[in-house]
Write a structure and sequence with these properties.
The complex is a heterotrimer of chains A (386), B (396) and C (231). With 386 residues, chain A is an alpha+beta fold. Chain A has two domains: 171 residues, no CATH class; 171 residues, no CATH class. Chain A has 15 helices and 13 strands. In chain A, strands 4-5-10-7-9-8 form a six-stranded mixed beta barrel, surrounded by four helices. Chain A has a two-stranded antiparallel sheet with strand order 2-11. In chain A, helix 13 runs antiparallel to helix 14. Chain A is elongated, with a radius of gyration of 29 Å. The two termini of chain A are 27 Å apart. Chain B has two domains: 190 residues, no CATH class; 172 residues, no CATH class. In chain B, strand 12 and strand 13 form a beta hairpin. In chain B, helix 2 packs antiparallel against helix 8 and helix 2 packs antiparallel against helix 11. In chain B, 52% of the residues are buried. Chain C is an alpha/beta fold. Chain C has one domain: Rossmann fold (3-Layer(aba) Sandwich), CATH 3.40.50. In chain C, strands 6-7-8-3-9-10 form a six-stranded mixed beta sheet, with helices on both faces. In chain C, helix 5 runs parallel beside helix 6. The chains are: A alpha+beta (386), B alpha+beta (396), C alpha/beta (231). Chains in contact: A-B, A-C. Chains A and B meet through helix 2, helix 10 and helix 11 of A and helix 2, strand 2, strand 3, helix 9 and strand 12 of B.
Chain lengths: 386, 396, 231
């Protein structure tokens, strides 16, 4: 027998109350785990953005076009390693509800700028280069629709139409890419810009935006200045920002999702704080006599203080760990499920560390008052109260 | 029957009067329920407000024509030819000169600054005509004046003023090489149009190099809600690959965009309810344990176990109702009227207001009562089955 | 039978204020207890016998005077020094047993040993010996809530002696028991005193319980009424 055993026995002596309190904590950490993983996945683009990459968009708004001729001009700027033109295709598969995030790109340039993030089979990549109707598909999309290398699939556009008036393009799946890091978003699909530009019916030679890789992040500021000044007072003024800033503002458009998530998580923790806090206080009050006896037997007050705190720690960590565990299982299940077009939901190390921090704080808050009461408990009054 | 009823009343009153003894645990359960209700109502009022803002924009009198499959005004493109053909279709109201009443419109996206976050966001800029202006419900210029055709002038919606900066009356804004002046502020009674900038369609065409193409056409229907003539015209003419909807239906669909929020709100609050339920059960079991002797004594002197059951159940319901009321009042005070904006179906910001309604409030109260009912039932069951002999045991 | 002086109370006084009123329980109380004694303290409610026991057990402090135990002063020890002192020197037996309801019998007995440096193995040995002594070896794993009052008090005795203290303090040890069981418990205390040399101080209001003691002190209004009995 040890103090830990005593703490455990104290904690579990009223089975029903123990279970109910544990359950409340479990729920709070389940919500915490699931929502924070969601928030992290949403912000994965920001987290994974590279310091040496920039995005150049039309200054009016990023949905406004830029001329394709800009690419060659920009490539000459000192400090730029590579430039890739990208164009939003507005793709969907069969049903307009089934959006496919499709981009028309120049494949070798795509690899030059974003190659560090994309893992793709060398042979598949070569085949994609050769086939103008070939597409490179992200693993999430491939899984969602069951596409395999060699499949010929139709993609519609809700923006562009072909010269013959139809909005349906046929593509050959030549390769499936995965992210080099687990949080990477693989919901994108890449098609050949050249093929797209030649077959679509609107005025061609426009692109949506440019992805840029600089030779050194330290040069970013200078590159941005040179680039944007290059096109001042043209009909297509540009605005260049670091990738991280671009991704951040893109997410911010959705509204303050972080605030919503943290409010809900805060509410959940507030609930368990009051429930667990008051039941801990009650439990210790009910044990006043026993604590008096322990002290009479010679248990030092500090040791009893520690045991009460340990009890709230044990309760919170037990409930919290089960909550995180179930959250992990639940997220794994969500990741498997199709129709979930964001990056994989993962309980990252950061989330778990933060959860442990929250557990410590909760344990302290819920345990400290009962523990201090137990510490200060006078033996004579404790025993005479019986 | 009367005797059972009066027994229940007696026991309930005794329990309620003894509540202060269990003040802190009862408070914990009540607060937990209040928080759950407040969370639910926040989500519901958010999506309710969003839906009303978009639905408020649509009318049955008008039909909206977009390119087939485009789903949103932003993605749609209509050539001048198509506009000319479709506006001759039957079912469109005519003006005094027997010309169809329609508005061919452009829809482009420009940058604005969201006030709350100070970040760049997508603001829709619509090219319309006087006819297009008149087609909107409840539209009026509240400050300044209407834009003049042919000039680089903008009128900005009231929500734009509230949520985003950069488009104050008199401001000059630069898009590419061209400079525009904000000459007026308009209101459409709080609907989604108030999150837009309006300018002359022809000017927009030239400044944004759209040739003579448009994106959408709105037509006034000769018979509200009846788009059969238009649908038939599309069916008969293979050149017309168009989607036709009444404006009311079109915006209703877009208003569903935050429907997921309703689902999420319910899922989260139900999961949280389970946590609050654990608190309620805890409290009520403690209440029964504390009153064991009292309950057994009442039973010994002839009170029925039904009264013991209801006594406990009603106590739980009272606590949960209290929590529900606190939660709704808090949600109403803090959430109702809160304004914010998010990305709508057109990939542009829609400013909206959190809107509570009596239906929503009832949802909150019902959720609270369900927690109270379940949280009270099992402890009440235990109270009803307490052995009477407990009354005769010493209370050492 | 009796050895040297174990306890020496010198001019001990104890008073406390209740509201504005000052209540004095003892004023200049002197007494000593020798090693190996079995002392019964009797007296009506409010006579101060429980307070005296609290002072002897070091769970309460006098407002004046000195308490000496084994030739060292204990009344001026700090809270934590007193706790250590109690753990080393004193076993307690209470009227309502005061066992831990969540622990089984042998773990209740083991509790005071958590305050020693004994290894798990040694603790187990000592617990077994104590259980053997009170005749409950076969009930070691039972929960105390399933035991009779007499059995529970025997567990409490085992707990009081397991760490081999010099002194055992009993507060109405038979107050909750029937006559027959009470006699069993008292015989057991007598045995501990005679065979194992434990000094025992017992507060009781049961005259027949006092018969088991070597010495009886009557306390009334904070004073010993038969002064001649005070050594």
């Amino acid at each position: 027998m040890s103090d830990l055993y005593l703490v455990y026995k104290n904690l579990t002596r009223k089975k029903l109350r123990f279970f109910l309190t544990l359950f409340a904590i479990f729920i709070a950490f389940l919500i915490y785990g699931a929502l924070t993983a969601f928030d992290t996945a949403l912000n994965a683009g920001v987290e994974l953005s590279a310091d040496n990459r920039l995005v150049t968009v039309n200054k009016i708004n990023f949905t406004q076009p830029l001329p394709i001729s800009y690419v060659r001009k920009v490539e000459t700027i000192k400090g730029i390693a590579a430039v890739v033109p990208l164009n939003w295709f507005g793709g969907y598969y069969k049903d307009p509800q089934q959006q496919v995030l499709t981009f028309a790109v120049d494949p070798p340039k795509l690899m030059a700028v974003y190659g560090d993030d994309l893992a793709i089979d060398e042979d598949h990549y070569k085949n994609w280069l050769k086939n103008q109707q070939g597409i490179l598909v992200g693993k999430s999309v491939a899984d969602m629709y069951g596409w395999k290398v060699g499949d010929r699939i139709p993609l519609n556009s809700n923006i562009f139409s072909k010269r013959d008036g139809s909005t349906s393009w046929e593509f050959d799946v030549e390769g499936i890419y995965t992210g080099k890091r687990p949080q990477a978003d693989t919901n994108g699909v890449y098609i050949h810009y050249k093929y797209f530009n030649e077959t679509q019916s609107f005025g061609g030679n426009y692109i949506g935006w440019m992805g840029i890789k600089t030779t050194d992040p330290a040069l970013n500021e200078q590159v941005i200045k040179t680039l944007d000044e290059m096109f001042v007072n043209t009909p297509f003024e540009t605005e260049t920002v670091p990738e991280k800033a671009f991704n951040k503002s893109f997410i911010a458009q959705l509204g303050n999702i972080g605030l919503i998530i943290s409010s809900v998580v805060f509410a959940a923790f507030f609930i368990i704080l009051v429930i667990v806090g008051f039941s801990m206080a009650l439990a210790i009050r009910e044990r006043t006599g026993e604590i008096g006896v322990m002290k009479t037997l010679g248990f030092p007050s500090q040791r009893i203080f520690k045991m009460v705190l340990m009890e709230s720690f044990m309760l919170t960590f037990l409930g919290g760990s089960i909550g995180l565990l179930v959250a992990t299982l639940f997220l794994g299940f969500l990741n498997e499920a199709p129709q979930f077009p964001i990056a994989d939901l993962i309980l990252t190390k950061g989330i778990i560390l933060q959860a442990v921090g929250v557990m410590i704080v909760l344990s302290l808050i819920t345990g400290i008052i009962p523990a201090v009461n137990a510490l200060k408990l006078n033996i004579v009054t404790a025993l005479s109260r019986r | 029957m009367t005797s059972i009823f009066s027994q229940i009343i007696t026991v309930v009153m005794m329990n309620i009067r003894s509540l202060p003894r269990r003040f802190w645990m009862s408070l914990a359960a009540t607060l937990a329920i209040a928080v759950v209700v407040a969370v639910l109502l926040s989500f519901l009022s958010m999506s309710n407000g969003f839906r009303k803002t978009l639905e408020g924009a649509g009318t049955e009198d008008t039909a909206i024509i977009t390119r087939s499959g485009s789903k949103s005004e932003l993605n749609s493109v209509l050539s001048n030819d198509v506009v000319n053909i479709i506006t001759t279709a039957p079912g469109i109201a005519k003006d005094a000169n027997d010309r169809p009443i329609y508005s061919a419109e452009l829809y482009v996206v420009v940058d604005g600054i969201k006030r709350t976050t100070n970040t760049k966001v997508n603001i829709p800029m619509r090219g319309i005509s006087q006819t297009g202006f008149d087609l909107r419900k409840n539209v009026k210029i509240t400050e300044g004046r209407m834009f003049e055709p042919g000039k680089n002038e903008i009128i900005a919606g009231a929500s734009i003023q509230r949520e985003f900066s950069g488009f104050e009356l008199g401001n000059r804004v630069k898009f590419g090489k061209t400079t525009w002046t904000v000459v007026g502020i308009f209101s459409t009674g709080g609907s989604a149009f108030e999150s837009e900038l309006w300018a002359d369609a022809r000017v927009l065409q030239s400044q944004f190099r759209r040739g003579n193409s448009f994106q959408t056409v709105r037509v006034l229907l000769s018979e509200p809600g009846n788009i059969d003539g238009l649908l038939k015209a599309v069916e008969d003419d293979p050149r017309l690959m168009l989607d036709i909807q009444t404006e009311a239906d079109f915006f209703k669909e877009q208003g569903e965009a935050l429907g997921g929020m309703v689902k999420l709100g319910w899922i989260l609050s139900i999961v949280m309810s389970l946590g609050a339920l654990a608190g309620a059960l805890n409290t009520m079991y403690i209440s029964v344990t504390e009153r064991e002797q009292e309950i057994a004594t009442l039973r010994a002197i002839g009170f029925s176990n039904i009264s013991a059951f209801f006594g406990t159940l009603v106590e739980s319901l009272v606590l949960s109702l209290l929590g529900g009321i606190i939660g709704t009042v808090a949600a109403y005070l803090f959430m109702d009227g809160l304004t914010t904006s998010t990305l709508g179906g057109n990939f542009t910001q829609v400013a909206f207001t959190f809107e509570m309604s009596s239906d929503l409030l009832m949802n909150g109260i019902i959720l609270a009562l369900i927690i109270g009912l379940v949280g009270g039932f099992f402890p009440a069951w235990r109270a009803a089955r307490l052995p009477v002999v407990l009354a005769f045991r010493g209370g050492a | 039978m009796t050895g040297g002086k174990l306890y020496d109370l010198r001019g001990v006084s104890k008073s406390f204020t209740k509201g504005k009123e000052k209540i004095t329980i003892f004023n200049d109380l002197n007494m000593s207890i020798s090693e190996g004694d079995f002392l019964a303290i009797m007296g009506p409610s409010g006579s101060g016998k429980t307070t005296l026991l609290n002072l002897l057990g070091g769970v309460d402090k006098p407002t004046g005077g000195e308490i000496w135990f084994d030739d060292s002063r204990v009344d001026n020890l700090s809270e934590s020094q007193l706790a250590k002192w109690r753990a080393n020197n004193i076993g307690f037996i209470f009227q309502f047993y005061n066992l831990m309801p969540m622990l089984n019998a042998e773990r209740n007995v083991e509790l005071p040993l958590l305050l020693t440096k004994l290894s798990a193995k040694e603790r187990k040995k000592n617990v077994a010996a104590a259980m053997e002594l009170v005749g409950l070896s076969d009930r070691a794993k039972h929960m105390t809530s399933e035991m009779s009052g007499g059995q529970q008090q025997r567990v409490a005795i085992a707990r009081a002696i397991v760490s081999d203290p010099k002194l055992i303090l009993c507060d109405e040890p038979t107050g909750d028991l029937d006559r027959k069981t009470a006699d069993e418990i008292l015989s057991m205390l007598q045995l501990l005193n005679r065979e194992f040399g434990k000094t025992i101080v017992m507060v009781t209001h049961d005259p027949s319980a006092a018969n088991y003691a070597k010495r009886v002190l009557h306390l009334d209004k904070g004073e010993f009424v038969e002064k001649d009995l005070v050594a």
